[in-house]
Amino acid sequence: MAFSKVPGKEDLYVGGIFALRKPETFLEKNFTSVLSVIKYSFAGWGEEANRFQHMSIDIDDMDDQDLLVHLSSAVRFIERGLYPPVAPDESTSGQKQRVDIINAGPQSSPGSVYVHCAMGKSRSVSCVVAYLLWKHPHRFGGKQTASSTASTAQRRKSAADAVEKAVKWVREGRPIAEPNPGFMRQLELWWEMGCPVDHDGAVESHPIYQKWLYETKLKEARDLGMAPEADWIRFVDEEAETEKNEPKPEVPEEPKGELRCKKCRRILATSKFVVEHQGTGNKGSSNAPCPHIFIETLSWMRPALEDGALDGRLNCPNAKCGATVGRFAWQGFKCACREWICPAFSLNRGRVDEVDIRRGVLGIRNPPGRNGSL
Length: 374
Ligand SMILES: [Zn+2]
Ligand SMILES: [Zn+2]
Hints:
Elements: E1 3-5, E2 11-15, H1 23-28, E3 33-36, E4 53-56, H2 71-82, H3 91-103, E5 112-116, H4 123-135, H5 152-171, H6 181-192, H7 207-223, H8 236-242, E6 257-261, E7 267-270, E8 292-294, H9 302-306, E9 311-315, E10 324-329, E11 333-334, E12 340-341, E13 344-348, E14 352-356
Parallel strand pairs: 2-5, 3-4, 3-5
Antiparallel strand pairs: 1-2, 6-7, 6-14, 8-13, 9-10, 10-13, 11-12
The chain binds zinc ion (2 copies).
């Protein structure tokens, strides 16, 4: 099974490197474009290689490889191959050609594209799935947009469903289709981003991609038992400043409250920087509230993190105060509620005041089970 047709009206094929062993057989298929999701060159094919457009993505079939960053350019390449743009100087004949295509009905695309890797199982299938998710979102649950009002958990679930459906779609034509788990997760992120293809670097500049890349780097550092290098630590409050004009991956939340140093009352975090965990609001639980309030990495922590320590204390940034208000651990730690938070930046509940801005009441917590606690 050298070539497998991807079900649908596009003349889109997926397969392995085996199909390229015999150039004469391959050329019979008259592909107009070939996407190699593997390091591959047609240099030995001479003039014949000019019969199709070629793009090669040099990547291994490993969970931790970053295929995501290539998806915008890969999908754009596939689309250009299937539906070649009409050149301006051919506009007259091009129009005629278009009409012919329309008259030909929905049977096929004007161009034909072969997407391959080594086996035609993981890398190439991932790129085809990315294309289908972008081109035919309605087949897989409808277009996902970053501004969707769904919760993070709901978005992840619908992304997982969409990707699963798209892989099944390809599997109808190629039963061995099976992107590796790392690529599956990346395809979910692709869907969550809304499959951005405005330009080749569309994924790279997307906040969801940047966040994922950062988390990947944190994990690599963690696996090596090291703290991240100071110059690439992301301080979430600083990003909130610089990314005001960028599309927001999360629905902006009304500030509900503040966490202040108990000793000097300096604001340490607003509620939008609180990392939700099961014990955050002690919702509906009769147990005592968690001793930790987890927050994002914020710029006032910079002095504590610059030294490259794996864990340590967090002190109040007010120079006149400097009280210990919590602690951090890049490798994470387990809260009293048994949830593992990683990385962990914790404010000690006993050392901060929780202020509800809306009610203008200081230091009073909502009772358990009520919304609006920090
Ligand atoms: Zn203080
Ligand atoms: Zn907890």
